[in-house]
Structure formats: C-alpha cells, structure tokens
Amino acid sequence: MTRPKKAIKTKKQKTNYLPFLTMAVAIIAVAIVVLVPKGGSDETALNNTNTSNNQNTTIEENSLDENAGGPVKDLGVAAILNKNGDVVIKEADITENVSFLEYKSKDGITVGLLAARASDGTVRTALNTCQVCNGSPYAYFVQQDDQIQCENCGNIYSLDMIEQERGGCNPIPIMVEEKTVTGTEIIIPAAFLEENAAIFENWKKF
To answer: How far apart are CA 9 and CA 12, in angstroms?
Structure first.
C-alpha cells in the first residue's frame, strides 16, 4: 500500500527592505554633503558682508564722533604763497574750525600758523605756538570745540581771544599792522615769518 506523500510546505520568503533603506540614506547623505556646503558658504559670505558693513559703519560713525566734540588734532597743511613768498589766506575758506597752516623758512624751519573765524565773524590769525612755551616741541595748539589748547602746558584759550593780546600762555598774535587785509584775503609777509622762525626750531621734533 502506497503511503500518500506529505505536502512540502514552502516558507514564504519575506522581502528584505534594509538594503533599500541603506541606499536611500546614502543618497540623502551624498545630497547633503554636495548641496548644503554651497548654501552654507553663501550664507557665511552674506554674514561676513553684513559684519564688514557693520564694522565700516562703526568706523565712519567713530570718525564723525571724533570731530563732533573734543580735541581736533592739528593737521597742518602747506600754506599758499604768492609770487613774493608771502602767505595768502582766503577769508572765505576760514570757519570756526581752525585752519592749521605751515610755512617753510629759508633755513628749512617749519613755522606754524593758525586762522579761525571768531564769533563776531572776523578772521583771527596767530602763530601756532604758545608765547610762554615756545621752544618746546609740544608748544602748539589743537582745537577743542570753540577753544584751542596748548599741548605743552594744557592752557585752554577761546577762539575769540586769538589776536587780541600779547603775553601769557596763548598763541602769538599776528596783529593788523603785521599783515595786510584786503577784504577777501589776509597776506602775512614772509619777512615776518622769517623773523619768528627761530622759535619754531624745536617745534614738533618729538
């Protein structure tokens, strides 16, 4: 008698999704590596630009603040000379902000001058050295609001008092009789500057 054969049960093979998941993760990772740094670089560059702009703005604001109040440093510029070698100052160019000028003597000595418009509208001129401190390298003035201050002794002097008196710790005045005033220009003779050049021999020689 033949025995019936037992049916062979076949196990149903389950689908393994792990390789697919691994591949998907790998693709996403590659995409992140390739794409994200590019976007990140742009963002970083933008941030750097903004930072730079902010720094520039701060520098500009600080530069303006320095002149808004407090000492204005003596930034001397070469004086304009006429054909006779005299210093010529155009009155229209002079304001309440002191103009610091420099004249070079025949012996090569730098003579400092200053010119400023006083509160009454007149232009005042003086040698940029202290009558008491001259001879010192620091005997020159810087502006502080509507005043000037000697860098050697620290004396503070009103712009309105420039060219008003001799003696004391104030800038040596260039009086009316020592210059020519035409109404549009002030002419300071070279001879006058040469006479006073010796007191500037050590001027600003730190």
So the answer is: 9
Report the DSSP beta bridge partners of residue 124: 116
How is the beta sheet containing 180-181 ordered, strand by strand? 80-81, 87-90, 185-188, 180-181
What pLDDT does residue 4 have? 54
Please report which confidence band the pLDDT of residue 147 belongs to, taking 50, 70 and 90 as the band edges. very high
DSSP 160: G
Q: Report how far residue 10's alpha carbon sits from residue 28's, in angstroms, rounded to the nearest whole number.
A: 38
CA angle at 8 for the pair 5 and 13, rounded to the nearest 5°: 170
Beta-strand relationship, 77-78 and 99-104: parallel
Query: What per-residue string of b and e applies to 85-110 under the rule 16 or more CB within 10 Å gives b?
Result: ebbebebeebeeebbbbbbebeeebb
Residue with tokens 């742009």, as numbered in its chain: 42
